[in-house]
Amino acid sequence: MPSTILIVDDEAGGRYTLESILEEQGYRIEMAENGMEALEKAHQLLPDVILLDVMMPDMDGFEVCQRIRKDTLLAEIPIIMLTALDDRKSFLTGLESGADDYITKPYDRHELRARLHGITRLNRYKKLLDERANIEKIHEQLLAAYEATIIGWSNALDLRDKETEGHSQRVADLSGRLAEMMGITGMDMVYMRRGSLLHDIGKLGVPDSILLKPDKLTEEEWAVMHKHPQYAYDMIYPIEYLRPSLDIPYSHHEKWDGTGYPRGLKGQEIPLTARIFAVVDVWDALTSDRPYRPAWDEAKALEYIREESGKHFDPQVAELFIKMMDELKTVSKNETLWSKLN
Length: 342
What we know:
The protein is an alpha/beta fold. About 60% of the residues lie in helices and about 5% in strands. Strand 1 (about 5-10), helix 1 (about 10-20) and strand 2 (about 30) form a beta-alpha-beta unit.
């Protein structure tokens, strides 16, 4: 799209002289005969540059320039002042009024074209930067909306099952720590957090009579419960931005020895993020109260993790998880001791 140039001059000869100089330069030329018309057309057109004559009746170019600079809609439009006045005072007055450049008559057509080309190029570059910044801002807002939606879904899942309230956020935080220790970074970490928060979204397809049952489930009920990873896959896969986060919701019930579900994956066939999450998920479940049993203490839960290493859990992940929990326990003890000393 060509740059729009608004020529403002009360003399027809001046306007058409400028038009003749610029007509082959690929600009869209618009004209105004006085200051008021200039302001009106500036609002209508939002030109890329205004060529503004100084000596005009009623409202001279200095006043027009000042009004434009005070108008938030127009303030950023570049202005080149054109005048027969070549004294220093007029030059300074033009700059103080907000002009970006100042050219005296009679014009050197090559100089005028060069200066106008420079300003339109800079203005175009500024617009590109503004557009890029706006796109980045919109992208950030969109990502924030996505994140808020995911957290909302996660909270809704926890609220549905009062016994696991807060579970999704806890396992997301703890699995993120463990993933970082295993070298997961960047967008892979983002995908992992999303998958962690939505790991049980497939349970939306499980009836309350099964999901909220206070007693142990029957074989038939377990068969229904075991379908929730497939439900998660069916729900998430069509959502393109969530598709990279699908490994955990779909595979966190797979086991290292191949006895898990829904696909019976074995060893490193199981995605790494799902192997990491599986340890954390079981840990949080064991150390939380359930209708059918009280929470285990940390020592008993850690012993279970050790026993299931190589069976339920990836041995490397289980070992690193135990190391992480020992380090967190040490840090917690030191913080408690420090608070007592102070």
